[in-house]
Design a protein that fits this description.
The protein is an alpha/beta fold. The protein is 43% helix and 29% strand.
Length: 286
């Protein structure tokens, strides 16, 4: 066999292999989508810190591990609902990147962000929960000699990202049966308050009475954290329902760092327990 004949045979063989692979892809793709739809919808659950999804991860059934761009995603079942869990890391960039990967690879029906926050509402104590009826990025805007003016991240993008009423109502219903840890106050122990509110997000850990006063004045904020509004914007732009659930770990004041260390485990657990109760309702609504 001459070299030319051999070369032509190799080229034809490669072309045939590519055609076969392409054909198999188009045959398998609809089957995969059909199988995925038959298995039921997926709820994505995102946290910034390991402690924020630890309780959920420990209860995950049929657990499998997936890695994309060095981020780990756990899939399985919680309370009868198919889920994917991820720890995205601290800050808006990490949160947005993780949310994007979740949407691209797992196609969830909704994203729930569970975690802790600094409480700005004086009626809330560590262990109480704020449901993000609206979220906003408090460090996005224009700073001039006259002061700071908040601005949205682009044309057509709202300053305040609204949460779907369906998820807000579901969370309020779930709160009635959630197995919460009690909140410790100077008047004794009580069950956590679960309230709708404004959650603001920025790439700073707030431990300043002056800043908390500013966030309340400018945004009417009830809680402050570092990821939620970034996730909410990604979901808003991709038309995927999203709810940010934040349990108060501190008051974002001069004692914030000490209080965070003291209450972070309790706060993370209460947020996760509300998420679990929501999953139970979602599973029953299939």
């Amino acid at each position: 066999m001459s070299w030319l004949i051999l070369k032509n045979s190799i080229v034809k063989g490669r072309c045939l292999a590519w055609l076969v692979a392409l054909l198999l892809f188009f045959i398998a793709a609809p089957w995969s989508r059909a199988e995925e739809a038959k298995a039921g919808p997926v709820t994505a659950i995102l946290g910034a810190l390991p402690v924020e999804i630890e309780l959920l991860e420990n209860r995950l059934q049929d657990r499998q591990t997936n890695q994309y761009l060095n981020l780990t995603f756990y899939t399985g079942t919680l309370n009868g609902r198919r889920v994917v869990l991820a720890v995205g890391g601290v800050g808006k960039v990490n949160a947005a990147m993780t949310a994007t990967l979740l949407l691209d690879h797992f196609h969830p029906a909704e994203i729930l962000f569970t975690g802790v926050a600094g409480g700005l509402n004086t009626n809330l104590a560590p262990g109480d929960i704020v449901l993000g009826e609206k979220t906003a990025q408090h460090d996005r805007g224009e700073l001039t000699a006259a002061g700071f003016t908040p601005k949205p991240t682009g044309k057509g993008i709202p300053l305040f990202m609204p949460a779907p009423e369906r998820l807000l109502a579901l969370a309020e219903t779930a709160a009635k049966t959630a197995d919460f840890d009690k909140v410790k106050t100077t008047q004794g122990e009580r069950l956590p308050r679960v309230v709708r509110g404004v959650i603001v997000t920025g790439d700073i850990f707030v431990a300043s009475p002056a800043k908390t006063a500013e966030l309340q004045k400018v945004f009417g904020a009830d809680a402050v954290e570092m990821e939620g509004a970034a996730v909410a914007q990604v979901c808003w732009q991709q038309n995927v329902p999203c709810l940010v659930i934040r349990c108060v770990s501190d008051r974002a004041d001069t004692m914030a760092r000490n209080d965070f260390e003291k209450f972070v485990n309790e706060a993370a657990a209460n947020s996760a327990k509300l998420t679990l109760s929501m999953l139970d309702l979602l599973a029953k609504s299939k």
